[in-house]
Every structure is written in structure tokens, then in C-alpha cells.
Automatic annotation (TrEMBL):
Single GO term (MF): metallopeptidase activity
Matches recorded under Gene3D superfamilies: PmbA/TldD superfamily (3.30.2290.10)
Domain called Metalloprotease TldD/E N-terminal: residue spans: 39-103
Cellular component terms (Gene Ontology): cytosol
Stated name of the protein: Putative Zn-dependent protease-like protein
Source organism per UniProt: Rhodanobacter spathiphylli B39
Database matches in InterPro entries: Metalloprtase-TldD/E_C, Metalloprtase-TldD/E_cen_dom, Metalloprtase-TldD/E_N, PmbA, TldD/PmbA_N, TldD/PmbA_sf
Occurrences of domain Metalloprotease TldD/E central (ranges): 131-236
The keyword Cell inner membrane is assigned to this record: no
PANTHER family on file: METALLOPROTEASE PMBA
Alphabetic keyword roster: Hydrolase, Protease
Domain Metalloprotease TldD/E C-terminal: start-end pairs: 243-456
Keyword Transmembrane: no
Length: 457
């Protein structure tokens, strides 16, 4: 697929970022003049096109153009924040006045303040994140219909929940009174399709999607439609299971959810509130000794790539789990001060977390190889509900997927619940596949666990 500009106008992103940077610097100067000892500004402009079609007809067309401006001021260690979506001078001044008024009446917080000046990013290599997509409404509709037609052409597909085509681009500037000004621009585009199949046993629904920085990296409309149809039809004839304990293989798009639970447990907010089952675990084993998880913030076209975090702190390659041992927490400057530690450059979140493929025997396996490693057990393709506790690590969710026997898929299953404790789940990882899902900033293949409780009939 081709990639040019989302709108038909010339690319003004560089000029718009400079305008945001000038505005941020001016507001910081005015905040200091109003008595603030420190100040920081985050400003953004985003635009996009979102088209939804169903059964060959247009359902919705949405063009968006949003602006955001947020200001935080510090009077000593008293903090005030205010924001607006209007970049007109009067609105900016009102936002500044409001932030200063809030700060003057809040309690002092010893952990409040900007990140350390010495930690500010000074290098800004091009991470290849800017790929505007020249697609107008008519072309997006045509593409959506082509995706849906590809899926609906499969025998057994009885209905459609529709196809979606989204193109988006965003600019942002973060600046603070250390003199730091960071500029970022990036694009995100996506395609998706949800289908319905039915037989004498009932109806089943499933979907597929693709998400990229550059439209030229999309899978084809035919391939996306085929994948959505294949997944939907495979669910027909689903049955339940008797209650048992067995190995469970999480497909990559669910495996990254497991890694997300790890991140929640090692995030500064959970730790300083003492609301994490991984409290005081740095330097201790939390996963098998063969497993490494690393943050890689500077991957070209990465979904989470960035040269600096939400406080301007430079991002760096860093181990999170090294040979199974928790190497560090995930901290902003605020949470770091609360814990008596230093920022890890993770204000705003993690930047491209890579889970290394492998197993205790040193072998790497693709998806078919992971099914062979599973042998007989549950292949998990969907989880439901919110039954995960970061405080205790208890994990219990509704689920569906496939029962696997001797490394081969035997039949689909649904109406089951899987349960365990995250601490045991992390320690019970048998293997991580090489079938990495690149549609996220959490980069992992499928993950095989030695056992979980599966409750069904």
C-alpha cells in the first residue's frame, strides 16, 4: 500500500511543532514571571480519518483534528496543573492563571518537581515514526469494502460486524524550565474486520486487525479478510471442558497481556502504595533463569519508540528481567522519589519491551513448535473479565480457545475459566515462541505455562 500525506495539503508538521515549541517556551517564561519555581508544558496536535463499513455500506465516516495543551507549575513543592483544548491566547492565559492558583493552595509534596536536569535527553535520532498516509474518504471506503468482501466470501460466514480503516498522525512537544524542549511526531494506522459464522450449534464471532506506523507495512486486504474468516470459522462447534489442571499456551496477542500484568506490578505507583505482589523483589528471581526481558526504546518504526519519556528523561536500552531476575522497577521521577530511587525513564509508560524467545533447552520455536511443546493442553485465544489482582497476584478470567492433543488442535472450547497466581504463572513459563506479534509495544511470541486450573462443566 502506498504512503504519502493523510491530507492533500503539504506536510506542515515541522512548522506546527515549532509553533508548539515556541508557545510552550513562552508559557514557561510567563509561569516563572508569575512566581513559579518550575514549570512544564505538554502540547499536541493530532488528526485522523476513521471509516467503518458493514455489509458493503458505509456506517460512519469521522474526520478528527484535536489539540491539547497541559501546564504544570511548581511553587516550591506545591503543584498545580491545568489543561485546555483551545490554543488561543486567552485560553492559554486562563490555563496559566488556573494552574498557578491551584498550586498556591495545595499541600507541599516532598516528591513533587521536575525530573532532574542532568537526566534530560540531549540526542534525538530519527526513529522512523512519521509516515503520513494519503488516503481520502472514498479510498478508505473502498479499502474497507474490499477487506469485508474478502472475509465474507468464505463459505460459512453468515454476517459481518464491519470493517474499519483508520489513518492518524500526531505531533507533540514537551518542554520544561530546565530549558528542555523535545519534539515528537508519529503516525499510526489500522485496519480491522469482525465476522460472524453460524451452524446448528449456534453463532460465533471473531476478528483480526493490523496496526502499523507506515501504510506500506499493512498486510493485504485479502489476507486480513482471510485471517478474520479463518479465526471465526474455527470457533464453530465449541464445547466446554471438565475441570482440570493442564498446560496453557497463550497466543502472542494474549501473551503480551501477561507481560502487561508484570509491568503493572513493577510500576512505581503500585510499589509506593505497597499494592504489588512484587514489592521488594528487585534482585530476586521472578521468572525462569533462561528468560530475559529488555526495554528497547529506539527501535525503528516501533509502536513504543521514543527518545525521551513524558518528563524529558532520556530513554535508554535497559534490562527489566535478566536471567529470570527482576533487574529494576518502572519509575517516573515522582515515584522514584517516593521510593528513594532514581527515575528509570518510564514516565508515561514502557518503550518497546522485548521478551526474548527461547526455553530451558535453549531452543526457539515458531507457533507450530509451541503447539508441539504444549502437547496436550489448552491453547488460549481469548480472555474475558477483570479478575486480576496486582496486590495479591491472583488471576481468574473467563476464557475460550482450543483443546490440543499431541501437538494438534482437536476442537474449539468456550465457557471456561482459567485460574492461577501470577507469581506461579511467571515462574511456570516453559517457553516463549518466536512468533512475535509486532502490532504492540510489548513484543512477545506465544507463552507456554506449565499448568493452570481450567474450570468448565
Amino acid at each position: 500500500m502506498s504512503e504519502v500525506a493523510l491530507s492533500q495539503t503539504p506536510d506542515r508538521s515541522e512548522q506546527d511543532m515549532e509553533r508548539l515549541a515556541d508557545l510552550a517556551a513562552d508559557v514557561i517564561r510567563r509561569a516563572r514571571a508569575a512566581g513559579a519555581s518550575q514549570a512544564e508544558v505538554a502540547a499536541s496536535i493530532s488528526s485522523g480519518l476513521n471509516v467503518n463499513v458493514r455489509l458493503g455500506e458505509v456506517e460512519t465516516v469521522e474526520h478528527t483534528r484535536d489539540r491539547g495543551f497541559g501546564l504544570t507549575v511548581y511553587f516550591g513543592q506545591r503543584k498545580g496543573s491545568a489543561s485546555t483544548a483551545d490554543l488561543n491566547p486567552d485560553s492559554i492565559q486562563a490555563t496559566l492563571d488556573q494552574a498557578c492558583a491551584i498550586a498556591r493552595y495545595t499541600e507541599e509534596d516532598p516528591a513533587a518537581g521536575l525530573a532532574d536536569a542532568a537526566r534530560m535527553a540531549t540526542s534525538f535520532p530519527d526513529l522512523d515514526l512519521w509516515h503520513p498516509w494519503s488516503i481520502d474518504t472514498a479510498q478508505a471506503i473502498e479499502l474497507g469494502i474490499a477487506i469485508e468482501d474478502a472475509g465474507r466470501a468464505h463459505p460459512g460466514i453468515s454476517n459481518s460486524d464491519g470493517a474499519s480503516v483508520q489513518a492518524g498522525e500526531g505531533l507533540s512537544v514537551y518542554a520544561n524550565s530546565h530549558g528542555f524542549v523535545g519534539r515528537e511526531r508519529g503516525t499510526r494506522h489500522s485496519l480491522s474486520l469482525a465476522l460472524i459464522a453460524g451452524d446448528d450449534d449456534g453463532m460465533q464471532r471473531d476478528y483480526w486487525y493490523d496496526s502499523v506506523r507506515a501504510a506500506g507495512d499493512f498486510m493485504s486486504a485479502q489476507a486480513l479478510g482471510d485471517k478474520a474468516a479463518e479465526r471465526t470459522l474455527a470457533r464453530l462447534g465449541a464445547r466446554s471442558l471438565s475441570t482440570r489442571q493442564c498446560p496453557v499456551l497463550f497466543v502472542p496477542e494474549l501473551a503480551r497481556g501477561l507481560i502487561g500484568h508484570l509491568l503493572n506490578a513493577v510500576s512505581g505507583g503500585a510499589l509506593y502504595r505497597q499494592a504489588s505482589f512484587l514489592l521488594d523483589q528487585v534482585g530476586k528471581p521472578v521468572m525462569p533463569a533462561w528468560l530475559d526481558i529488555n526495554e528497547r526504546p529506539h527501535l525503528a518504526r516501533g509502536q513504543g519508540s521514543a527518545n525521551f519519556d513524558a518528563e524529558g528523561v532520556a530513554t535508554v536500552d535497559s534490562a527489566l528481567v535478566e536471567r529470570g531476575v527482576l533487574a529494576r522497577y518502572m519509575l517516573s521521577s515522582y515515584s522514584a522519589r517516593k521510593l528513594g530511587l532514581s527515575s528509570t525513564g518510564n514516565a508515561g509508560g514502557i518503550h518497546n519491551l522485548v521478551v526474548d524467545a527461547g526455553a530451558a533447552d535453549g531452543e526457539r520455536s515458531d507457533f507450530d513448535g509451541m503447539l508441539a511443546r504444549l502437547g496436550t493442553g489448552l491453547l488460549l485465544t481469548e480472555v474475558m473479565g477483570q479478575g486480576v489482582s496486582t496486590v495479591t497476584g491472583d488471576y481468574s478470567r473467563g476464557a475460550s480457545g482450543f483443546w490440543v492433543e499431541n501437538g494438534k488442535i482437536a476442537y474449539p472450547v468456550e465457557g471456561i475459566t482459567i485460574a492461577a497466581n501470577l507469581r506461579d504463572m511467571f515462574n511456570g513459563i516453559v517457553a516463549v515462541g518466536s512468533d512475535v506479534d509486532i502490532r504492540s509495544h510489548l513484543l512477545t511470541g506465544s507463552i507456554l505455562l506449565d499448568r493452570m486450573t481450567v474450570a468448565g462443566e
